[in-house]
Inverse folding.
């Protein structure tokens, strides 16, 4: 599916800043901008307790993206596989609480995208530096595919890849900017997605970093 890169959505004011990626997936341009300072304070609070770290995939590859989590459940990977865990394997402590600003934004964005009543219990926080990338994958470690994924982008821009239900399906390249929120769920819940290697285009607030966090209902 080709995304509609019409940022102004024709004449309908309700469509301003929306880019449809599929029947139940949308980019909400700049949706997080009013909350940026609260979100960044949340990232600082989370990473003070659970620092960013580079994890190793089951295939033995060290991810170029550094990650941490907040909420009841956190996504982890190691030689034994991918899974959600209540405990941060690095600190032995529960993951930090999900900041209210994260939860509120996710609920609002999900509703805006047609998924009312979203109640995330897991938030994966990713930190990209120039050259970091995320290869095409599906988010399928969650128990409940009925809930959407809400993905918030801050800092440097990235080219998001949004493919189909099969790994080999052609992927659209969707630029994501500071403050953009992507929501995918329903028939689009298992679409393959990823991130192209980041260029060094320093952001005025975050420098040579991109922070992305994805909120999920994992348990
Ligand atoms: C993810 O798939 O977990 C992250 C996507 C992104 O960084 O935009
Ligand atoms: Fe993902």
């Amino acid at each position: 599916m080709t995304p509609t890169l019409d940022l102004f959505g024709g004449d309908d004011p309700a469509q301003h800043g929306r880019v449809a990626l599929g029947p139940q997936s949308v980019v909400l341009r700049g949706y997080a901008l009013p909350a940026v300072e609260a979100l960044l304070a949340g990232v600082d609070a989370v990473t003070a307790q659970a620092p960013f770290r580079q994890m190793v995939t089951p295939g033995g590859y060290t991810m170029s993206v550094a990650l941490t989590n907040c909420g009841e459940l956190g996504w982890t990977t190691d030689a034994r596989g991918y899974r959600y865990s209540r405990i941060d394997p690095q600190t032995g402590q529960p993951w930090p609480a999900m900041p209210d600003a994260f939860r509120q934004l996710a609920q609002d964005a999900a509703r805006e995208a047609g998924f009312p009543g979203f109640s995330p219990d897991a938030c994966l926080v990713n930190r990209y530096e120039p050259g970091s990338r995320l290869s095409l994958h599906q988010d399928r470690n969650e128990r409940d595919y009925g809930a959407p994924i809400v993905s918030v982008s801050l800092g440097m821009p990235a080219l998001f890849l949004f493919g189909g239900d099969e790994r080999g399906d052609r992927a659209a390249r969707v630029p994501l900017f500071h403050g953009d929120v992507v929501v995918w769920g329903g028939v689009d819940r298992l679409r393959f997605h990823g991130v192209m290697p980041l260029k060094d285009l320093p952001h005025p607030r975050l420098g040579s970093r991109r922070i992305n966090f994805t909120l999920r209902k994992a348990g």
